[in-house]
Design a protein that fits this description.
By secondary structure, this protein is mainly beta. The chain has three helices and 33 strands. It folds into three domains: 157 residues, ntegrin, alpha v. Chain A, domain 3 (Immunoglobulin-like); 134 residues, hypothetical protein (bacova_03559) (Immunoglobulin-like, Sandwich); 136 residues, Galactose-binding domain-like (Jelly Rolls), CATH 2.60.120.260. Strands 26, 27, 28, 29, 30, 31, 32 and 33 form an eight-stranded antiparallel sheet that branches. Strands 2, 3, 5, 6, 9, 11 and 13 form a seven-stranded mixed sheet that branches. A six-stranded mixed sheet has the order 8-7-10-4-1-12, with no helix packed on it. A hairpin with a 6-residue loop joins strand 7 and strand 8.
Length: 473
């Protein structure tokens, strides 16, 4: 019985204490965090991290340039108030360890408020009366400080709420008041000069049967490029360097080639890349072929960049101009163009050997159609309708199947389309690919005959040719 009354007395005392706490009018009797209102920073990755994604930047002679924007964050109130709350942010320099970290200077940053309703962006950051948050944009307004170091460097800015005004009852949170912003600047990238064709190749080749065929021929355009534009005119000087020629290469005299930029002849060995431009195109024409012999061979003019004036620019650049005289190659021609308009062509059998399917399928643009030769050779003649300067052909097998690709054959020309002269014997195997290319010195003709004698099929038979094209000068 005594134990029962003791329990009852304890319960009554506990009830009295709880009742006093719950019903008291004095706010001081309740923990402050329960009723208090706080301004705090909300970042989308909190609480996993208070580090915003680093903003990457590049560093070159033009300065430091950020590749994008810093991520936004929100400033929030625990609950809305009846007045506008003005917020001012700062950089907590004390949170940056000078031994291991680099401070992103406060002067390099500014903060803007984004108002979702009106769409405005303002410098004054306010949480409007009745609202609980405002989105904040962090703006990198200056990067001059980061140009001092040429090594990759990271700069950190611990952003916090420095001051609020409006409702005096609102306090600044002590534990959710920080987000770290980092600017990651890469190694300094010096400006550099390079020379190449548009394809990236550093050699331009022209082909012909002899001096008269090659004179006045243009080489491929050499593009002289800077890594990025300079603020100054850049003078580039080239010089021939024949020590780079191989044992079998004969020299192309510098005087035999004329150069021009934008239609203006180049005087001497120097060109200029104008300030603000990143490249110029150098055209080269073989204006004198008297140094060539009639027996054939290969010639080369290596042009090396020897000096650059006007700005600090790295260079190690050489371009090669080459001449191949009377050479047949199983490669796509490096000059001229592919003739895709073939409606004026007339294709007939090149001999009395029958061809399966109509020969017009060779120029219908459809790789799903073909001309076929089983155990026989595939022999056809082409009348272009007019004389053309042919520098190569393209053969495309049925559906680009490599097993049906051409392996060997012959190419003929004719003055009348009846009497044929052997131009090239394709005795060396063509590559087992499709399409296949054959390039050769220019041939001025209206009639061309292609005799395909062997395929890459195991027995050498079964030539399925889908398309035939020519390259013209």
């Amino acid at each position: 019985m005594k134990k029962y009354w003791n329990k009852l007395a304890f319960a009554a005392a506990a009830l009295l204490v709880l009742g006093t706490t719950a019903c008291g009018d004095d706010d001081e009797s309740v923990p402050a965090y329960y009723y208090g209102n706080y301004a705090y920073i909300y970042y989308q990755l909190y609480p996993e991290t208070i580090d915003a994604p680093a903003l990457a930047a590049t560093h070159d002679a033009r300065g430091v340039m950020a590749n994008g924007l810093f991520a936004n964050f929100h400033v929030r109130l625990k609950k809305p108030v009846e007045t506008d709350m003005q917020i001012r942010f700062g950089i907590d320099e004390a949170a940056v360890d000078p031994e291991t970290q680099n401070l992103l200077p406060p002067s390099a940053l500014s903060f803007m408020a984004l108002h979702p309703t009106s769409g405005e962006v303002t410098e004054e950051i306010i949480i409007p009366a009745g609202s609980t948050e405002t989105e904040v944009r962090v703006v990198l307004k200056d990067t001059e400080f980061a140009t001092v170091s040429k090594d990759a460097t990271r700069y950190i800015a611990p952003v916090y709420i420095a001051e609020i005004s409006g409702d005096p009852k609102v306090k600044i949170s002590s534990n959710r008041n920080l987000v770290n912003y980092t600017l990651s600047v890469g190694d300094y990238i010096p400006n550099a000069l390079s020379v190449a064709l548009a394809s990236g190749e550093k050699t331009s080749v022209i082909k012909g049967t002899g001096p008269s065929d090659l004179v006045n021929t243009y080489f491929g355009d050499m593009i002289v490029s800077l890594r990025y534009p300079s603020e100054k005119d850049v003078k580039v000087t080239f010089e021939p360097d024949f020590s780079l020629n191989g044992e079998t290469d004969q020299a192309i005299p510098r005087s035999a080639v004329s150069f021009s930029v934008n239609g203006q002849a180049v005087s001497g060995n120097s060109i200029t890349i104008p300030a603000g431009s990143s490249s110029v195109t150098l055209k080269a024409q073989l204006t004198d072929a008297s140094f060539m012999n009639e027996t054939g061979g290969e010639y080369q003019l290596p042009l090396t960049v020897k000096a650059i004036e006007g700005d600090e620019i790295e260079f190690d650049a050489t371009f090669f101009y080459r001449i191949k005289q009377a050479a047949l190659e199983y490669t796509e021609p490096t000059s001229g163009h592919l003739e895709t308009e073939r409606s004026g062509y007339r294709i007939t059998p090149g001999s009395d050997v029958p061809i399966s399917n109509v020969t017009t399928r060779l120029i219908d643009g459809n790789t799903g159609t073909f001309c076929y030769a089983g155990s026989n050779k595939l022999d056809f003649a082409v009348d272009f309708g007019t004389y053309k300067d042919v520098i190569g052909i393209k053969l495309q097998s049925y559906y680009d199947y490599e097993m049906y690709a051409v392996r060997n054959g012959n190419i003929y020309t004719s003055e009348d389309g009846t009497n044929w002269t052997l131009l090239y014997e394709l005795s060396d195997d063509l590559p087992k690919i499709s399409p296949q290319y054959i390039s050769f010195p220019v041939v001025h003709t209206r009639h061309l005959r292609v005799e395909l004698t062997k395929s890459w099929y195991s027995s050498g038979s079964y030539i399925y040719l889908s398309e035939f094209y020519i390259y013209v000068k």
